[in-house]
Amino acid sequence: ATPTALMVGTGRGAQLGILIKGPEVLESTRRVDTVVLDKTGTVTTGRMRLQDVFSAPEVDEEELLRLAGSLEHASEHPIAQAIAAGAIERAGGLPVPENFDSVAGLGVQGLVDGHAVLVGREELLRQWAIELPRELAEAKAAAEAEGRTAVAVAWDGEARGVLTVADAVKETSAAAVAELRRLGMRPVLLTGDNQAVAESVAKTVGIDEVIAEVLPHDKVDVIKRLQDEGRVVAMVGDGVNDAAALATADLGLAMGTGTDAAIEAGDLTLVRGDLRVAADAIRLSRKTLGTIK
Ligand code: ADP
Ligand code: MG
Q1: Which residues surround ligand 2, an ion (CB under 5 A)?
Q2: Tens of pLDDT, residues 156-174
């Protein structure tokens, strides 16, 4: 392509709400055949709200919310923010944790009011040899089957409850997926969240390839595996946990509404965070490069 055509393409991109790092990006965009979509914050709004509070027998719901909310208040994760906000609403003020540590893709742990507290995936509790009792495991499974994300809460070596949060699928996501398919792309949903939740979201937007329960540092390996299969992969993401995968993909598209880490790692930024613009980007590059050949 001539430099002039690429500049015109780049300028047209800006009008569409696509920031392009360099003219060469349009070239890689044209060859893409697979689009990997992060779930939380990309396909869904990422604005979650606290839904159910299930506490173990003998455990006070307010205490559960206060201890879990206290730790989550210190975390930037969208799930954490929903739990902290819900806890403040339902239980009043939150104590400041004496100690706090976030475990990527698993949850948070720390010390609150002298209690060693864990909030996150069941996997996180298992690392401390804590199992969910049957009633809590059943409540969690039922919520997940309905598409809610459930996190477990434990303190002082025992599981104490399950909190669920729900996040809405963006109104534009299904149309975006349909548009990507029309352009010949294979959409794949990639998430650290639970399989049941991931499948429920995938069904809503029309994706049938789901890769769930992937730890943040393993998202890169998923991209590499798809590339090894001979696929040319675009990745769309918003989180700190997507940055490495965005950099590894043949084309990284960052949501403009996402984190700085994702925006820095991507080749393109979808300014308004509208997934339909990912399809516009592919169409634009085909048009820009196709007309000149
Ligand atoms: P995604 O890939 O969809 O953006 P993440 O990798 O950020 O999701 O998170 C994966 C899972 O880890 C979440 O669904 C949740 O179960 C758990 N998790 C991560 N951070 C937290 C947190 N601060 N509090 C509770 N659970 C968390
Ligand atoms: Mg995300």
Answers
A1: 38, 40-41, 238-239
A2: 999 999 999 999 999 999 9
Q: How many domains does the chain have?
A: 2
Q: Give residue 168's identity as a one-letter amino acid code.
A: A
**DSSP-derived secondary structure letter, 77:** S
* ipTM of the complex in this document: 0.93
256 with 161, same domain: the answer is no
CATH number assigned to the domain comprising residue 39 = 3.40.50.1000
Contact at 8 Å (CB) between 110 and 74?
Answer: yes
Expressed as residue numbers, the domain containing 140 is 47-167
Which residue from 286, 252, 257 is spatially nearest to 268, judged by alpha carbons?
Answer: 252
Whether residue 150 contacts residue 125, with contact meaning beta carbons closer than 8 Å, is answered with no
Compute the half-sphere exposure of residue 244: CA atoms within 13 Å on the CB side of its CA.
11
Q: Pick from 167, 196, 226: which residue ends a domain?
A: 167
- C-alpha to C-alpha distance for 85 and 108, rounded to whole angstroms: 16
Q: Tell me: the pLDDT tens digits for 211-248?
A: 999 998 999 999 999 999 999 999 999 999 999 999 99
Pocket-testing residue among 173, 193, 219, 246, ligand 1, by greatest number of atoms within 8 A of Cβ: 193
Q: Report the CATH number at residue 144.
A: 3.40.1110.10
Contact 140, 123 (CB under 8 A): no
Q: Report the pocket of ligand 1 as residue ranges, CB < 6 Å.
A: 38-40, 72, 75, 77, 79-80, 105-108, 119-121, 149, 151, 191-193, 216, 239, 241
Residue where one domain finishes, among candidates 132, 167, 202: 167
Q: Is 38 an annotated catalytic residue? A: yes
Are 24 and 123 found together in one domain?
Answer: no
Work out the angle at residue 257's Cα, subtended by the Cα atoms of residues 254 and 262, and round it to the nearest 5 degrees: 35
Look-up of token digits 């809460």: 153
Residues 113 and 225 in one domain: no
